[in-house]
């Protein structure tokens, strides 16, 4: 069992290292798209919040790194991982993920087009990752001094946003429903800057 799990982890490690070469911080994921390493503090619920200061793995997106040696160590600690997550909001890309879901009764691509028409922006040509369920992840970049929050269907039904503290499932990852893949013609692209009008919609309203 351990041997087959390590073999399964080898291809995804290659994909994760390739993402790290582009400056994207990654973590290993389980087939359910969750961080593969469990918290080292799970047996001590009274432990103060830790974002990795203890030096151990198992802090979710806070473990993410673009350093090849650390990436290899993360995957060595989770040989059962079949996917990898890309942390959003971190330098140098300050990635923002626009997740166009395929929930019943929603047409998220049409909703995004309607928002673009209403607010006067164009969805730029950028990296697009196709999900096994038929959805799409659009990769955008944000300003270094702006933290875009995560949200689910706040922008429009079926449109989820992955920002600071969140992660996107990377292409080449394998989940319970299939494999994530870069859309044809977008693998060579760099994540495009988020249009200012769209960025304004992604941020919480200023305090009154």
Task: Provide tags for this entry.
three-stranded antiparallel beta sheet, 208 residues, disordered N terminus, globular, 4 helices, seven-stranded mixed beta sheet, 2 domains, alpha+beta, Prim-pol fold
Count of all domains: 2
Span between termini: 57 Å
Element order, helices and strands? Answer: HEHEEHEEEEEEEEEH
Q: Look at the structure and give the mean pLDDT.
A: 91
**Alpha-beta content class:** alpha+beta
Q: Your description of this structure?
A:
The protein is α+β, with helices and mostly antiparallel strands and 208 residues long. The protein folds into 2 domains: 1-87, no CATH class; 88-208, Prim-pol fold (2-Layer Sandwich), CATH 3.30.2250. Helices cover 24% and strands 22% of the residues. The chain is built from 4 helices and 12 strands. Strands 3, 4, 5, 6, 7, 11 and 12 form a 7-stranded mixed β-sheet that branches. A 3-stranded antiparallel β-sheet has the order 1-2-8. The protein has a two-stranded antiparallel sheet with strand order 9-10. Helix 1 packs antiparallel against helix 2. It is globular and about 50 Å long. It starts with a helix and ends in a 6-residue tail after the last helix. 35% of the residues are buried. Mean pLDDT is 91; it is low at 1-9.
Briefly say what this structure is.
This protein is of the alpha+beta class and 208 residues long. Helix content is 24%, strand content 22%. It is built from four helices and twelve strands, in the order H-E-H-E-E-H-E-E-E-E-E-E-E-E-E-H.
